[in-house]
Input
Amino acid sequence: MKTNHHTFLLVAALLTMFLIPGIGFAEEGVNPEGMLDLIRADMRANIEAIVTKAMAFQGGEAEKFWPVYRSYEAEVVTLNNERLKLMKEYSEKYATLTNAEAKSLIEKSFDWQTQRTNLQKKYFTKMAKATSNLTAAKFFQLEHRFNLAVDLGVASELPSLFLESVEVSEE
Output
């Protein structure tokens, strides 16, 4: 499992590198959206292998789980595309961010987080109905870990208004 975990972290780190203008493949002549599609496909393959191993499905659970998961994944991609737009907007406006823009961006971020939570609640119910409460809970615990890794990668790549204003003592 450790190898799969490291693979996922690498894929998550690479994914964040391609999401933000000015880093990764945002250079001239490279199509960031095309690269993002390739990374997403690779990430999906890795995630399915990790999920299969981590979930240790019993009986016919896998056959019931995967169709619900694929539907969930399609909605997650749509939601993450919205997050990508938000990150691009933040990165583009970062140097000249006004109070009004900062407020708008954080409200959009809060809205995105609410949408993500609501989507997870919706699919917990669907997965639990298709498999069991335990299987659905196990998946969303695993999903939470994936999200933490991706969120950490995203946070490490975005400029931080707070960190730049903090003085660090060398004592």
